[in-house]
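Checklist before submission:
- one chain only
- standard amino acids only
- sequence pasted in full

Submission:
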Amino acid sequence: MANILDYIAWRGDLSFAQSPFNPVDNIIFSQLAYLPLDGIAPGPDENSHITISRAAEIFAEKLQNDPGIEQAIIFKEDPALLRALGSSQRFGDCRLYGYINLIDTERQIQFAALCVDTGDDSHFIVFRGTDLTLIGWKEDFNMSFSEVVPAQIEAVHYLEKMAQKTKGPLRVCGHSKGGNLAIYAASQCDAKIQRRITDVYSNDSPGFHEKVIASDGFAQIKDRIHSFIPQESVVGLLLEHGNVPRVIKSSQAGLRQHELHSWEVTHNDMVHVDSVTQSSQFVNKTLREWIGALDIAHREQFFEALFTVLSASQAKSLPELGSLWFRNAGLMLKSISNIDDSTRDLIRKTLAALISTARRNIETLLKPAEK
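Returned file contents:
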């Protein structure tokens, strides 16, 4: 049950020139993008960089002296990951630049990205997935009824801007929403930049509106997309993808399989399995039928109402929502009572439809597993 930390211990003494870039490196950089590197990695408008080794040193100092930084860490394993990367020959001298972390409630956007110069004459552009902010999850909800969300537009601009600062091949990647942004940016960017992209990595990422899949830009980049999902994937099976993902073995169960730290790896690849589990098939079939049965206006009204209820707690993030759950629950219940009758009826009917759809698909869980 080896993971990315084991991989760094095994292969950390080999440069990218000695051992070429592989899919495990992709999930390592995708995970790296979740770290709060504000004030450490240079921004998109700066003409400077910092090695991962130096970034790890500064981050360790911040952890000791700034208690607030711990609240910005999404995955508890990430500080150890950064230390391991900084101490390795393979990753320590890689240079970070172009870091951006944008949260705009008015525009309903959560967007973060990072560039990595891997030292093999290519550059890696990494998009962060959804963080712990409520506005980040609201934007994910919006994908169910919007052809384009603000973070996708931002991703195209970012890719084009950072590509103009470099020469040579480009790789693009991300985890969860970050993988969605990677594919969208690669498919919708300027044709000259698109031709420089050698690979696009999507790691358990939601799909797209049908119009994106049908676009000429997506057709141009499709053969360069590498999609991966864990055995019990939920997020990575949502919406339309336009390609068949490879299934990865995870050491966790249920939704915890979404975490890249749980994905099992070998010396130069991830551990593949034949198919997703029956529970994943059940959830995927249920959500697809449920969302498919709602027209666009209905989807938008439902998720807007749901976010209104969550926002009534005055929490800005999921930890805040949970830390004062008793107070927040009271505020949200009060919010529901203040919603007009038609909206409250919409929420009730929509949730009832979800339960009904799940009941119809229960045989997916009960049928014998395929050999």
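Reviewer check: The first strand starts at residue 50 and ends at 51.
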